Amino acid sequence: MSDANTPDTPKGDDARDQLVELAEQFYDQFADGSVPKMTLPTRSKSNIEYDDDSDVWVYGDRTSTRSANSVRGARKLLKSIYTIDFLAQQLDEDRSSTLRELYYLSESWDEEEAQFNDQSESDKLVEDLEIVSGVKREDFHMRPEESGAKVMGPLRIREQTNRGDREIHCQDDVGQGGYQIPNNPDTIEFLDCDAEFVMCVETGGMRDRLVENGFDDEYDCLVVHLGGQPARATRRLTKRLHDELGLPITVFTDGDPWSYRIFGSVSYGSIKSAHLSEYLATPEAQFVGIRPQDIVDYDLPTDPLSDSDVNALESELEDPRFQSDFWTEQIELQLDIDKKAEQQALASRGLDFVTDTYLPERLDEMNVI
Amino acid sequence: MSDANTPDTPKGDDARDQLVELAEQFYDQFADGSVPKMTLPTRSKSNIEYDDDSDVWVYGDRTSTRSANSVRGARKLLKSIYTIDFLAQQLDEDRSSTLRELYYLSESWDEEEAQFNDQSESDKLVEDLEIVSGVKREDFHMRPEESGAKVMGPLRIREQTNRGDREIHCQDDVGQGGYQIPNNPDTIEFLDCDAEFVMCVETGGMRDRLVENGFDDEYDCLVVHLGGQPARATRRLTKRLHDELGLPITVFTDGDPWSYRIFGSVSYGSIKSAHLSEYLATPEAQFVGIRPQDIVDYDLPTDPLSDSDVNALESELEDPRFQSDFWTEQIELQLDIDKKAEQQALASRGLDFVTDTYLPERLDEMNVI
């Protein structure tokens, strides 16, 4: 069983050192008589590229520079210094905070020019610091606003909480609601795992159906609730389950373009967090359904595609992350039939159809079970 | 300590009997040679009234009748019969399903006229059946789509899950994420409680702040995350904590009209579910803040009110549920200063201000601690 503290990026003291080093660079630039500056990869769609080694999308070679040679640039660096100071102190005290708290907290800073004008500014700065320092936000102890989702299945974990360690079996020690993923899942150590694969489920209703029907038990499956667009914590845990425990990851969503994006964010990473793809994305994740072909094969109850659905599908046809025969075929079929279906639409064949027939057949085809 | 199965409304076999009795009424009406019908309270804002005994808002005396003397009415009764049949069978088999599953499942019914045209139709029918039978949706084993939120604090519970009972202490046996409330919190039995009061918190960021700062531990408080407009499960659990354990309920939200509605749904119930007020609403719940007066007193970072904020505040001034000196004064002050603030805005005075100063002072004023 692997260690919880797989040091993908620096933690604790190391994270603090990386931050302070950044501030020291500005100091040295001043001392040298040069204008302080910070260089970052350009964060746009045109500057993400597929990394063949890691099979994820990462930033390309284009860079942008923040220099103190303009008032605007100088103010940005000033804000960076104040933020680094706050983060270093937070790490010293082993505390944490949210992005929103950082934004509000800046109002208490003595230097008014360093205060943030809105939260998007402080959010972006923290992302910039992640990229430049190579330290993840979680390791700065910045908690996301959004909660991670919940897990049910044959896995025993140890979680380091701020009140001591807790050992929890994700079936035997939890209620029907399952184990709640903490904001920073790197505090989790995997102790014992009897699971054969992971199934990430988009909707709460389907998650509850699988749990009620005992799917996790019968198929030795870890059911991970995504709850729409998955939180960072959920994606991180999924990746660790794959990398450290060698579990196949499957994703089960509604059959519409927004759900394919949910699959994409689990498997390919997102443009906004391409610097974190290696930390969050699981390129080996497999899409279970609902596939447009399922709508046809199982004659599912459907809704017609809206204009925005059609646009989203067309944009996926162009998206480098969806360039495969499978996706091209499925998306073109969906545009052709002009229909979408929810995962719970499988209930039109009875409440147990999904666990007795649909999933076992599909997972068998995919060689997962 | 009270029993988990406080039979507020019939459960299991009783729920089934109530449903079947409804169907029998239709049968008897047929047998008598009269046109079958179903009578319901009128479900509109004009037909809710304050019940002095229970201190909650309930439906008034006006009623509407569904009769089979029109094709439309006959179809409604047919759908009711099919739904009752499905629910009775579900209860027989001790299974459960979601509202969305019911809607989709109707596509498998042999009688096409009984199938629902959209989910709002089946949702409404289930509510009607709740009202007429006096049985709650949860006791029909209809699970909500939305998950309940999570609890952290000195409480030990036993939850009946479909894989056996689980005993869980909501501090010692859970991770940082806390105990996940199940969809039907009436499966929970309270075993031991060292809590002195309950604090329902709107945002995840503030919930995490209280937990990180050990507020639940220091003040013997059950921190219940609302996560925006609270799920039925969360409101039900809150009510049970009040009624069965005698705990004062406090509600801590952002300082804007939408958050006052969140408080209202915990304390007064909603128009849509006025038939459930006695089951879900806790009229003794107290509002902690953020109050408009706090924005002034603590000079909090704010945003200006939008047009829809102003409209919502004005509508609250007219709302029978907000007719108190406290609310009138606060809402008028807010319209006057034209500002709103989030609970996390307290971070502008430091990350610990909320737990060291704001909450202790406010709760002391309110005689909660």
From TrEMBL, chains A, B:
<dbReference type="GO" id="GO:0003677">
    <property type="term" value="F:DNA binding"/>
</dbReference>
<comment type="function">
    <text>Relaxes both positive and negative superturns and exhibits a strong decatenase activity.</text>
</comment>
<dbReference type="InterPro" id="IPR036078">
    <property type="entry name" value="Spo11/TopoVI_A_sf"/>
</dbReference>
<comment type="subunit">
    <text>Homodimer. Heterotetramer of two Top6A and two Top6B chains.</text>
</comment>
<feature type="binding site">
    <location>
        <position position="202"/>
    </location>
    <ligand>
        <name>Mg(2+)</name>
    </ligand>
</feature>
<dbReference type="GO" id="GO:0005524">
    <property type="term" value="F:ATP binding"/>
</dbReference>
<keyword id="KW-0547">Nucleotide-binding</keyword>
<dbReference type="InterPro" id="IPR036388">
    <property type="entry name" value="WH-like_DNA-bd_sf"/>
</dbReference>
<dbReference type="Pfam" id="PF20768">
    <property type="entry name" value="Topo_VI_alpha"/>
</dbReference>
<dbReference type="Pfam" id="PF04406">
    <property type="entry name" value="TP6A_N"/>
</dbReference>
<feature type="domain" description="Spo11/DNA topoisomerase VI subunit A N-terminal">
    <location>
        <begin position="75"/>
        <end position="141"/>
    </location>
</feature>
<keyword id="KW-0067">ATP-binding</keyword>
<dbReference type="Pfam" id="PF21180">
    <property type="entry name" value="TOP6A-Spo11_Toprim"/>
</dbReference>
<keyword id="KW-0413">Isomerase</keyword>
<keyword id="KW-0238">DNA-binding</keyword>
<dbReference type="InterPro" id="IPR004085">
    <property type="entry name" value="TopoVI_A"/>
</dbReference>
<feature type="active site" description="O-(5'-phospho-DNA)-tyrosine intermediate">
    <location>
        <position position="104"/>
    </location>
</feature>
<feature type="domain" description="Type II DNA topoisomerase VI subunit A all-beta">
    <location>
        <begin position="145"/>
        <end position="194"/>
    </location>
</feature>
<dbReference type="InterPro" id="IPR002815">
    <property type="entry name" value="Spo11/TopoVI_A"/>
</dbReference>
<dbReference type="GO" id="GO:0006260">
    <property type="term" value="P:DNA replication"/>
</dbReference>
<dbReference type="GO" id="GO:0003918">
    <property type="term" value="F:DNA topoisomerase type II (double strand cut, ATP-hydrolyzing) activity"/>
</dbReference>
<feature type="domain" description="Topoisomerase 6 subunit A/Spo11 TOPRIM">
    <location>
        <begin position="197"/>
        <end position="363"/>
    </location>
</feature>
<keyword id="KW-0479">Metal-binding</keyword>
<dbReference type="InterPro" id="IPR034136">
    <property type="entry name" value="TOPRIM_Topo6A/Spo11"/>
</dbReference>
<feature type="binding site">
    <location>
        <position position="254"/>
    </location>
    <ligand>
        <name>Mg(2+)</name>
    </ligand>
</feature>
<protein>
    <recommendedName>
        <fullName>Type 2 DNA topoisomerase 6 subunit A</fullName>
        <ecNumber>5.6.2.2</ecNumber>
    </recommendedName>
</protein>
<dbReference type="GO" id="GO:0005694">
    <property type="term" value="C:chromosome"/>
</dbReference>
<keyword id="KW-0799">Topoisomerase</keyword>
<comment type="similarity">
    <text>Belongs to the TOP6A family.</text>
</comment>
<dbReference type="GO" id="GO:0006265">
    <property type="term" value="P:DNA topological change"/>
</dbReference>
<dbReference type="InterPro" id="IPR049333">
    <property type="entry name" value="Topo_VI_alpha"/>
</dbReference>
<dbReference type="InterPro" id="IPR013049">
    <property type="entry name" value="Spo11/TopoVI_A_N"/>
</dbReference>
<keyword id="KW-0460">Magnesium</keyword>
<dbReference type="GO" id="GO:0000287">
    <property type="term" value="F:magnesium ion binding"/>
</dbReference>
